[in-house]
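Same chain as my last thread, 170 residues:
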Amino acid sequence: MRLPMMNGLLPLLLLLGLTVAAKPVERFVTPDGDDTAPGTEARPFATLERARDGLRELRAQGALAEGATVWLRAGTYRLQRTFALGKQDDGTAKAPITYRSRPGETVVLTGAHPLTGFTPFKGEIVQTDAGAQGFGKRRFRQLFLNGQPQTMARYPNADPALPHTGGYAY
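reply #2:
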């Protein structure tokens, strides 16, 4: 008599077990992580790109039915290029894809790259070799020193009497 009841109960228990087991995917990223790691909390990725690409791989396998959260751990992430998300990275209302910091942790995403090795030039003016620090032919338009914007060397010098042109030669 128990066998017919177990036959009906077993599929229900299996279905319930699958429903409970399905949960959103979690991946972790830290500035000192490793992109060859699996992206777990114990072995996090190093870049947002690797986390995004990992989610794309899971989506292709049909493993994002409940969505995903990419947890960014505290630190400064220096982006080498624009972090791009496309239509293939969309979530849904029932299966959202979220990138967020852990509660209480500060995350900074920046395209800025530090320059070091400044030496005195003239008076309060300092100089460094940006090309030797990986900038090569890359041009940049902003320079900050101790959090303050700096005027980069140019000709002619800035002239406060010409606020509209700023002293640039035309």
